[in-house]
Specification:
The complex is a heterodimer of chains A (235) and B (373). Chain A has 235 residues and is α/β, with parallel strands linked by helices. Chain A has one domain: Rossmann fold, CATH 3.40.50. Chain A has ten helices and ten strands. In chain A, the strands form two sheets. In chain A, strands 6-7-8-3-9-10 form a six-stranded mixed β-sheet, with helices on both faces. In chain A, helix 3 packs parallel to helix 6. The longest helix of chain A is centred in the C-terminal third of the chain and has 16 residues. With 373 residues, chain B is mostly helical. Helices cover 71% and strands 4% of the residues of chain B. In chain B, strands 1-2 form a two-stranded antiparallel sheet. The two termini of chain B are 40 Å apart. The chains are: A alpha/beta (235), B mainly alpha (373).
Chain lengths: 235, 373
């Protein structure tokens, strides 16, 4: 059964229609990626799914119930959490304060085990917990953004371009982390321009072009698809 | 040195002794000031406390939530006029003080939300312009609401406002306690001090609360705050309303204390001065804001003695002290901001912001190296 699905989803910025009728679904426990060129509408789709942008048309169902038009803060409480593009960490707050804010939407106060889990996943963050987040390197900031999202115990994690601007070694590290989070049972939808990385770790993939989904298949099949190879994997 | 200080702080008895000493000093302060500098200075002390309350209110909006508000004095005006209209011969209403004070907080808070609602999508400079306009609108309304129905008495203002009284105890008269003569200005000092302590207490509690953390998140990055599940709309409205309610309380006290108010007391310059208090003292840091408020209330008054100072030094008055006063005041502000750009007592986060980028770069290099290892 699908944890989240969008049908005929349309999103526009004023007159500009960025997403023009997208159908997609992510099953429970799946790791799905959304790849495509700059401006294809990937980020917009993601923001609509988590309630940060209003859908102009179409429906979004989450956990068997419609959530179209629900505000972001409500969806976070229900388990949909976005890791925004460019990380969006609180640069002047310490690493620990960032992580604590990640648990903001939770009603229970038992965040200590979750902190331990995040520190276990990212030992660098444990070392730097008292440091302002702005002094972290790009890779560490991305780890912090993911760790902060995990603090809210998400059921569906939406990752927007986690590999952006990172050194190749760190890209690989982020890939490992995403796979590990997926193995722990979190459902993931990953938006990436780095199609090679995304398809290498995902179960399934969608390819977006100018606001529409043009291909949907298993990650294996997309990797060997000549069209995809030519357009997104550099031949 | 620092170790000794920490050890000292750990000793509970010494901490209590320090608090006791501070309480005693605050209790005796008006008598000491009155004896040394005269009653006029006790009055200035009273005003300093009113400004501390105002500044702590604005600190919630600007310091905690990061929303630049240039029309804050409007809430002071709302509180003052509410008190003046409901406790003066103007409408021949004389409601009691204990009712007017919370009412002032409530009405000012509502005005705060009223200002907040249309400005939710604005930030920084844009928000500042709109709030500036709001402050002026309130002032102009107060000036012109004397026709066709006379509500505010226009530019003449409201006179003969009831002094603050709790039951038969009026704060404007002299009383004798245990054989000690306590004049009205002293009684007001204790009342204002009690309410200031309450406002400080609320400020501290807010800072450490869930809402306080949400404000910080919004100030740092609104989109990320939304992604954390924070209802940014409600939390911002709450900041405006809470900040405004502090202003409303302070305004009500001002009206009762002064006995006369007019729209001229609530002009743009007052908004700017309150903003200066928190920027200069240390935005977001309660102790800094208090220091800033006291300093900026006392400094302009102290500079009135420039004439006497000149006579003492040069034997005659070289420059008119009235002209010199604001010049020196402005110069002092400029100097403080150059020497302490994050404020006199900056909050830890402000200090981080002003720290040089060099350390950031060094860290980045180090961690990249670590990643490759």
């Amino acid at each position: 059964m699908n944890l989240i699905e969008a049908r005929a989803l349309e999103v526009s910025y004023g007159e500009i229609r960025a997403v023009r009728g997208v159908d997609l679904a992510v099953g429970r426990g799946e790791l799905v990626c959304l790849i495509g060129a700059n401006g294809a509408g990937k980020t917009t789709t993601l923001k609509a799914l988590c309630g940060m942008l209003p859908a102009r048309a179409g429906v979004i169902n989450y956990d068997g119930a419609p959530v179209t038009g629900r505000p972001a803060h409500e969806l976070v409480r229900r388990g949909i959490v976005l890791v925004p593009e460019g990380r969006g960490i609180f640069a002047r707050l310490t690493v620990l304060e960032n992580l604590q804010l990640g648990a903001y939407a939770r009603r229970d106060a038992a965040v200590a085990p979750d902190l331990e889990r995040v520190y276990d996943l990212f030992p660098r963050l444990a070392e730097r917990r008292r440091q302002p987040a702005g002094t972290l390197s790009g890779g560490e900031q991305q780890m912090l953004a993911i760790g902060r999202a995990l603090m809210s115990r998400p059921r569906l994690l939406l990752l927007d371009e986690p590999s952006m601007g990172l050194a190749p070694l760190l890209v690989q590290k982020i890939g490992d982390v995403i796979r590990r989070i997926s193995r722990e049972g979190v459902t993931l939808l990953l938006v990436e321009q780095n199609a090679r990385l995304a398809l290498a770790i995902s179960d399934r993939g969608y390819v977006m072009e100018s606001g529409r989904v043009t291909l949907a298949d298993s990650a294996q099949a997309l990797l060997s698809n000549p069209q995809v190879q030519a357009a997104y994997l550099g031949g | 040195m620092i170790e000794r200080w920490q050890k000292w702080r750990q000793d509970r008895r010494l901490v209590w002794a320090a608090y006791l000493l501070l309480a005693l000093a605050l209790a005796l302060l008006p008598f000491a000031v009155g004896a040394v500098a005269g009653r006029g200075w006790v009055r200035i002390l009273d005003f300093a406390l009113l400004y501390v309350m105002l500044a702590l209110g604005l600190n919630i909006v600007v310091g905690y939530a990061g929303l630049l508000d240039l029309g804050y004095i409007a809430f002071y005006a709302v509180g003052a006029y509410l008190y003046a209209l409901l406790a003066s011969p103007h409408f021949d209403l004389h409601l009691p003080f204990w009712l007017l004070l919370p009412l002032g907080a409530l009405v000012a808070g509502a005005f705060g939300a009223l200002l907040g609602a249309p400005t939710l999508k604005l930030r920084g400079d844009y928000l500042a312009i709109v709030t500036l306009g709001f402050g002026e609108i309130i002032r102009i309304f107060l000036t012109n609401l004397n026709a066709p129905v006379n509500i505010t008495n226009g530019p003449q203002g409201v006179n003969l406002i009831d002094p603050i009284a709790i039951g038969p105890f009026s704060f404007s008269r002299s009383h004798t306690f245990l054989g000690v003569d306590v004049p009205g200005v002293h009684a007001y000092y204790y009342l204002f001090l009690a309410l200031t302590l309450l406002v400080i207490f609320v400020s501290i509690r807010l800072q450490d609360s869930r809402i306080g953390r949400a404000w910080v998140a919004i100030r740092e990055d609104e989109v990320a705050a939304e992604a954390m599940g924070i209802n940014t709309r409600n939390v911002k409205l709450l900041a405006f309303a809470m900040g405004a309610s502090f202003g409303g309380v302070s305004g009500g006290l001002f009206a009762g204390f002064q006995g006369f108010i007019s729209p001229e007391s609530f002009n743009l310059f007052e908004s700017i001065i309150v903003l200066c208090m928190i920027v200069l003292g240390g935005m977001g840091n309660i102790a800094g804001v208090i220091l800033g408020a006291i300093l900026l209330t006392i400094l302009p008054e102290a500079l009135r003695y420039l004439g006497e100072l000149q006579r003492a030094v040069f034997g005659r008055v070289l420059a008119d002290p009235a002209d010199l006063r604001m010049l020196v005041f402005g110069l002092a502000l400029v100097l403080i901001m150059i020497l302490r750009p994050a404020g006199l007592l900056p909050s830890e986060r402000r200090r981080r912001e002003f720290r040089s980028d060099a350390s950031v770069l060094a860290q980045e290099q180090a961690s990249l190296y670590d990643a490759q290892r």
